[in-house]
Automatic annotation (TrEMBL), chains A, B:
It comes from the Bacteria. The keyword Metal-binding does not apply. Pfam families: LacI (PF00356), Peripla_BP_1 (PF00532). It comes from Psychroserpens ponticola. Keywords: DNA-binding, Transcription, Transcription regulation. This is LacI family DNA-binding transcriptional regulator. InterPro entries: Cro/C1-type_HTH, HTH_LacI, Lambda_DNA-bd_dom_sf, Peripla_BP/Lac1_sug-bd_dom, Peripla_BP_I. Residues 2-56 form the HTH lacI-type domain. One of its GO terms (molecular function) is DNA binding. Residues 2-50 form the HTH cro/C1-type domain.
Length: 335, 335
DNA sequence: CTGAAAGCGCTAACAG
DNA sequence: CTGTTAGCGCTTTCAG
């Protein structure tokens, strides 16, 4: 890489003159500025990012920790984060915790040495199950800002971006009730997560409020991917009168639809299905799945904004929590 | 952040003594080492990464440029790259080109200022269509190593990781022929890409070699996601006697299967389908899709290895191309 | 208008 | 065994 020093030598001026010239300093003669810039351009000079970071104690880099990049929700969130960060002149260093607490701790430790100005993350499943977030609080104690999105924790005082999980599930359930559904089952593989619990509660509350709904809430947990087929087939065996299904994760709604079609349920006449999925699954089914849209891009964008707000304004104290609106998008799997 | 200077002041020793002590230098008395380390631990000292990068002219960071993170193949490749890089003590800065050439150029320019030691990337669609890779060659001219994976270009002399696209499609086609299929259609949305062209060629070659195969090759291009439904339905309309489908992208195989089932094709009796998809789509269909497995994790891992090899051994000249074996995994959609 | 010097945090050659 | 110094590349104050 070409440096200021090399430019200075070739031009027989000092390093500081070169530096100032490249910044259009008033102190430098127009003539010199032209000469310096010409050579800089000719040699494709680029200011060394590392040196600037050291000088400014600021890297313009955000650490992003994603629990599961193969989950479409997180991939899309990353897309939005990268886009907004890039727009604001920030790079992102991506770490994938793969739902492991140790990897999460490791990533935080490895990057909290001046590598990044702050973190945007969603908490790993293992961490949420263990309910131990000391490692994240440790980062905050070092005065490195953190923004949590989607999977958050009440035990961490920082900026957060969430959706109204309770309300979204509540609304979806209410919709099925309004269709006259009498036997609504909730399925999902994220009941251990903060968001999963809230969604289950929203579902339960909607049923509870409905005086003429006589069945008990049914919550079916999918534990491992390889058992998803059987688990969902069991739903239809155990609850042959099921007439509404709410999936609170990304994929089980689609699988439920496939299985129901295989069993010759008439959808949506006999059975309605609502997924908590992203648009990507639409192409995989016919009829198309009614979903709760999470506005994932907005979640990512808002996360970056909150973080940069804090970076640019260290004195602000109160943590903000931004709630992104969800939307129930009716398609072919509901009446 | 706590610095060597602060430790030195508190201990009344020089900065270099502290630095050496922390590195277990023989020059330093055991007693001092203990004292220094104790304080460092107590204050949670971490060497400033930026300073070390500046000192060493090495960031231990890899720039990764991904064309489309919502594509499962690339998400998985990123997963593998991050995992291997992390294992080797490297961070990754992720940029998403979103298939745009300008974004690709931008990312390369912004990171080729000492931010990263090298790049791992797959070429954006727009770049491949325009067939202009000057910006990538410019990086190589700056002596920054680049590893290309999946989507490569003959006009770039660098290390590459690919699969045998021609061979994989050839093998899949041969398999369908061995089942006695007489009317095999290829579908996909990546015919503009290097990999897509090779796959089409492999398909065509297999047909051509088969003397008793009388139908012409049929290549159906899917242009936009929103037209995928109609495009595939058209296949069945135009070619009612189709008895074999090869999808060369991630999703169209699944869609073809759905549509065929809707049209009451008996699969795999009347019609076989082979997808170029990852395992993630398996849960979405019944029967499960026969696929060409790309060993995506190996692709990512190999890319990191090639890059680090080059970083650690600058003198090597010849570019290597590593070909990862594919595997035809027979499942329910073939006989 | 230009240059010298200090300093960001660290390492390492050299001096004591 | 410990300290001084220079330097990685840059910005910026201060001197000239």
């Amino acid at each position: 890489m070409i440096t200021l020093k090399q430019l200075a030598e070739q031009l027989n001026v000092s390093i500081s003159t070169v530096s100032k010239a490249l910044h259009n300093s008033e102190e430098i003669s127009p003539d010199t500025i032209v000469r310096v810039k010409a050579l800089a351009k000719h040699l494709n000079y680029k200011p060394n990012k590392v040196a600037i970071s050291l000088k400014n104690s600021k890297t313009n880099t955000i650490g992003v920790i994603i629990p599961d990049i193969l989950n479409h929700f997180f991939a899309k969130a990353l897309l939005a984060i990268e886009k907004e960060a890039s727009k604001q002149g920030y790079n992102i260093i991506t770490c994938l915790s793969n739902e492991k607490k140790t990897k999460e701790i490791n990533s935080l430790n490895l990057l909290s040495n001046g590598s990044v100005d702050g973190f945007i993350m969603s908490i790993a499943e293992e961490t949420q199950v263990a309910n131990n977030v000391d490692h994240i609080n440790a980062i905050l104690l070092q005065n490195i800002p953190v923004v949590l999105f989607d999977r958050v924790s009440d035990n961490i005082a920082c900026d957060k971006v969430i959706i109204d999980d309770f309300g979204a599930a509540y609304e979806a359930t209410k919709h099925l009730l309004s269709e006259g559904r009498k036997h609504i089952v909730l399925i999902g593989d994220i009941q251990d997560l903060s968001v999963g619990k809230l969604r289950v509660n929203g579902y339960a509350e909607a049923l509870k409020e409905t005086s003429n709904y006589i069945n008990e809430p049914v919550v079916v947990s999918i534990n491992k991917d390889n058992l998803i087929d059987e688990t969902i087939q069991d739903v239809f065996k155990k609850h042959p009168s099921v007439d509404g299904i709410i999936s609170i994760d990304n994929t089980s709604g689609v699988v439920a639809l496939q299985k129901a079609q295989k069993l010759n349920y008439n959808i949506p006449k006999d059975l309605s299905i609502i997924g908590f999925s992203d648009e990507n699954v639409l192409q995989f089914t016919d009829p198309k799945l009614t979903t709760i849209s999470q506005h994932t891009l907005d979640i990512g964008k808002a996360s970056v904004k909150l973080l940069l707000d804090r970076l640019n304004n260290k004195k602000q104290i109160a943590s903000k929590t931004k709630t992104i609106k969800t939307k129930l998008v009716l398609r072919g799997t509901t009446k």
